[in-house]
Amino acid sequence: MDAFAVGATLVLLVLSVLHQEVHGGLVGSDIDGCDVSQGNWVFDDSYPLYAAPSCPFLEKVFDCVKNGRPDRDYLKYRWQPSACSLPRFNGSRLLTELRGKSVMFIGDSLSLNQWQSLTCMLYTSVPEAKYTSVRTGGLSTFTFPEYNVKLLFSRNALIVNIVRTPDGRILKLDSISTQDDKLWSGVDVLIFNTWHWWVHTGRKQPWNFIQVGNETYKDMDRLVAYEKALHTWATWVDSNVDSNKTKVFFQGVSPDHSNGREWGDPQANNCSAQSEPLPGPNYPGEAHPAEKVVEKVLRTMSKPVHLLNVTTLSQLRKDGHPSVYGLGGHRGLDCTHWCLAGVPDTWNVLLYAALTQN
Ligand SMILES: *[C@@H]1O[C@H](CO)[C@@H](O)[C@H](O)[C@H]1NC(C)=O
Ligand SMILES: *[C@@H]1O[C@H](CO)[C@@H](O)[C@H](O)[C@H]1NC(C)=O
Ligand SMILES: *[C@@H]1O[C@H](CO)[C@@H](O)[C@H](O)[C@H]1NC(C)=O
Ligand SMILES: *[C@@H]1O[C@H](CO)[C@@H](O)[C@H](O)[C@H]1NC(C)=O
Ligand SMILES: *[C@@H]1O[C@H](CO)[C@@H](O)[C@H](O)[C@H]1NC(C)=O
């Protein structure tokens, strides 16, 4: 390369860095230039990061050991990025960093899964710290009073507004409820997630009609509806978030394991009997269609949103679900949620890395 080419390359590099800072949009899972979403699971005897019994507030549906799961190896895997190492989770450091702040998980039961994991990780690293845990309707608040840190979980499966009318429940793809607008405003760390309820039909479908503007639909392509809703959410973030105060995350799509053909085991039609992760960095199945929508929408945004890119690393963990050891909480055989301790602990290590990075 001649001097001009080197100069031009440098200018381009500087411009692309500026572009990232000024225009925001999707912030990937890079730590000092290393993509931590690329890697594989390694057996590590120092795992898990906490023992479920030392976490008195852990919900029974996630406590697979207590519910009789006989194998234990699934507790012992650590995510190893290919090009670097993740920092070791240090709960007292995170609480110090978050002093005086609030962190809110907003979404479905996969958000509950990650919120429970984070409260357990923090509590077991500072077991002498006092805590309070209060639930009011769909809002759970876990507090460490000595640090003045609040960790909240707001159950909100679809993120956009659902309005009850005499004719039925209307899912408004272009509206955020004023109640949610108020709830999210001023929170220091927001971690959104939605996907799983978008696919339900019949009795489990949480709406009767879908509305966009003045148009009402009986149904529509679910990925299209999902994308419209994410754009509504993205517009809320772009118009309401002060990025100097608030960090916004999107918890990537968490995969199910109910079709063994995806992971090269056509016999399996569920996750039971799976006791090991897939080896290596690649999931044999296709990229998750919802995750592609998430990435597409995040790229259009003007405010920075950090993607917790958990989809592939979780796809490799066909062994991580409660299966029949969720105590029948989820249709008897749960290949959607994750045992705790378990995979969501790694999602929180990614969150930790992003929050403690300078
Ligand atoms: C998320 O991680 C997967 C697997 O490493 C990767 O292929 C994909 O490009 C990542 N997405 C983003 C937006 O970084
Ligand atoms: C955790 O972080 C604190 C600082 O907040 C430090 O004093 C302590 O040594 C760290 N613990 C470990 C095990 O690194
Ligand atoms: C929706 O309907 C209202 C009342 O009928 C009308 O005033 C408004 O212009 C319509 N909006 C759009 C976007 O068509
Ligand atoms: C955010 O901080 C930067 C740098 O301190 C400042 O230039 C900018 O005006 C701030 N933005 C807002 C919305 O306060
Ligand atoms: C789940 O998978 C196991 C082992 O592959 C199989 O024996 C069982 O019948 C499956 N259960 C359901 C409900 O499909």
Automatic annotation (TrEMBL):
Residues 1-24 form the signal peptide. It is found in: Membrane. Keywords: Membrane, Signal, Signal-anchor, Transmembrane, Transmembrane helix. It comes from the Eukaryota. GO terms for molecular function: O-acetyltransferase activity. Pfam families: PC-Esterase, PMR5N. Residues 258-279 are annotated as: Disordered. Belongs to the PC-esterase family. TBL subfamily. PANTHER family: PROTEIN TRICHOME BIREFRINGENCE-LIKE 9-RELATED, TRICHOME BIREFRINGENCE-LIKE N-TERMINAL DOMAIN-CONTAINING PROTEIN. This is Trichome birefringence-like N-terminal domain-containing protein. It comes from Prunus dulcis (Almond). The lineage of its organism: Eukaryota, Viridiplantae, Streptophyta, Embryophyta, Tracheophyta.
